[in-house]
Specification:
The protein has a five-stranded antiparallel beta sheet. The chain is built from six helices and five strands. It is an alpha+beta fold and 186 residues long. It is rod-shaped, with a radius of gyration of 35 Å.
């Protein structure tokens, strides 16, 4: 049992995932190195504290409260939220959370395995902005073409009308040819 525990503890500590354990009151009881690397906090700075008080982005507090309630009810779930790193940067993470029970089946806390998806979120945001810009550009192009069509059509109609009026007057052979060319071109 001890070797098995050491094996899995070593595995968790060497993954590129952040692992954190909290008790039934959401107080951090254990963190692995990957979680410390993700947040910028040391184990000593994290253990004994409630992550909602300093680590969870204020807009995500409701998500954490909802997930904590689900853990108490025995549910495991995967969800996204934002963390505030020690240096103030925001990290987007996917958390897979699961409840812990003691040997009598009583809920004693939960474990969260976190994966940093900040780069993916930035790329998604960049794609959304690029799409919005492309849509805006298409609207501007359409507006420009509509305006240009109007701006060209109005004077062209004037030229055609004048050419028709001129064609009803007495013209020499060259002038008649020019009027014919104007009508065909228009």
């Amino acid at each position: 049992l001890k070797r098995s525990e050491e094996k899995y503890r070593g595995l968790l500590e060497n993954l590129k995932l952040g692992v954190v354990e909290v008790d039934e009151n959401e107080v951090i009881t254990h963190v692995f190195d990957g979680f410390c690397a993700l947040t910028g906090y040391s184990k000593e700075e994290l253990i004994g504290k409630n992550p909602s008080s300093f680590l969870i982005h204020p807009e995500c507090i409701d998500v954490i409260e909802d997930q904590h309630q689900k853990r108490k009810e025995g549910e495991s779930e995967v969800y996204e939220l934002r963390l505030i790193k020690k240096n103030g940067d925001i990290a987007w993470v996917i958390i897979s959370g699961a409840p812990f029970y003691d040997h009598q089946g009583k809920f004693t806390g939960s474990i969260g395995i976190t994966l940093d998806i900040t780069d993916r979120k930035k790329m998604e945001n960049d794609l959304i902005q690029a799409k919005e810009k492309a849509v805006d550009n298409a609207k501007y192009k359409e507006l420009f073409l509509a305006n240009m069509s109007h701006e060209i059509r109005t004077p062209l109609n004037g030229v055609i009308g004048l050419a028709q009026l001129l064609g009803k007057t007495e013209l020499n052979e060259i002038q008649t040819e020019y009027i014919s060319t104007i009508k065909q071109s228009a």
